[in-house]
Amino acid sequence: MSAAKSRGPGSAEEPTSQCCICHNRFDNYQIYEYRGILACGEHFDEAVFRRNAERAAVVAENNQQTAPFAGLNLTEGPIGRANQEILKAEITAAAVVGPRTSSYEERA
Length: 108
Ligand SMILES: [Zn+2]
What we know:
single chain; mainly alpha; two-stranded antiparallel sheet; 45% helix; disordered N terminus; binds zinc ion
């Protein structure tokens, strides 16, 4: 009865890209990509704004993790090596990527 139902998944005409704001699906030529996210023409500006805000949060999180070592000599010289030894546990903890960073990088 309904001819519209015959378009199955995998069909070349099937809209496959989903806008991250309105979650509607679009054909590839109607959707725009920015740093790993997709948005339709109507929501692209908002998506870019959200993505940049997310990125700023990630940068801030990373800066916070490495801030305790700012100005410290952690080079391969004798002083740097001594500092690395003393701060071993803290450096390891800071190297663990925060949850926001990992979710950001998964989609990047
Ligand atoms: Zn949209």
